[in-house]
Amino acid sequence: MRMESGYTLRTALLLLSLFMTASIQAEATDWTLAQLMLKFTETGQRENRFTEIRELSLLNHSLESKGTLTFTPPDRLSKQFDPPDGLGYGIEGNRLTIRKSDGSIETLLLDHSPRLLAYIASLRAVLAGDLPGLSVYFDTELKGSSADWQLTLLPREPKLSQQVSRIEITGQKADIRQFMVIEQGGDRITTRLHSQRED
After folding, report:
1. pLDDT per position as a tens digit, 1-23
2. What confidence tens digit (pLDDT) does each residue in 25-84 have?
3. Is 172 helix (H, G, I), strand (E, B) or coil?
4. Which one of 83, 135, 138, 190 is at 20 to 30 Å from 156 when CA atoms are compared?
């Protein structure tokens, strides 16, 4: 009788373990890029504090700066650095406006800067949930589940791929936690997004 009870308990635990494993695998399998993009579309406008770390082969140390990133659908993205940098970037459509610390303003078309285009197009398209726009410039690979995912972007355009090796974005649900641009020469720019209370 005891042996039967022990056997029944072990069987129940085994079945429970198999069920939980199958559920986790199903969640990972069912999690798609379309679902992730839908979550971003539903989020709409957002504002995050950020820490940006630049690792350059020409320098022996990394450069760190902080600021605020704001996205307003469908295509307005602004990035304001804290003093002493004081730089401000505003992107709307295909136009980049740079506000320098001395108050001067410079305007550029993104088509003229492949590396900048890659950085902005990838981040803005993800925040907007714009899968067709993202697919114009990148091949995509999504890993993980909704609770912990990584999206890798590989440039499709020759001009982009000559400068940018890949872009890695990690997050949880509709929150981007880290955005990393890895250039062909090994330089990388890592932007960590966090809420005001985490800064």
Report:
1. 444 555 565 555 454 454 444 34
2. 444 446 899 999 999 999 889 999 999 999 998 888 899 999 999 999 988 999 999 988
3. strand
4. 190
Which residues, other chains included, contact 77 with Cβ-Cβ below 8 Å and sequence gap of 6+? 69, 70, 71, 90, 91, 92, 120, 123, 124, 127
Q: Residues 182, 166: contact at Cβ < 8 Å?
A: yes
- The confidence score (pLDDT) of residue 140 equals 95
Q: Select from 116, 160, 155, 150 the least CA-distant residue to 134.
A: 155
Residues 6+ apart with CB under 8 A from 2: none
Alpha carbons 144 and 115: distance in angstroms, whole number: 27
Do residues 162 and 154 touch, judged by C-beta distance below 8 A?
A: no
Q: How far apart are CA 178 and CA 190, in angstroms?
A: 7
Edge-to-edge strands of the sheet including 138-145?
105-109, 95-99, 88-92, 76-81, 63-72, 46-55, 188-194, 175-183, 164-172, 148-155, 138-145
Strands (DSSP E) contained in the chain are 46-55, 63-72, 76-81, 88-92, 95-99, 105-109, 138-145, 148-155, 164-172, 175-183, 188-194
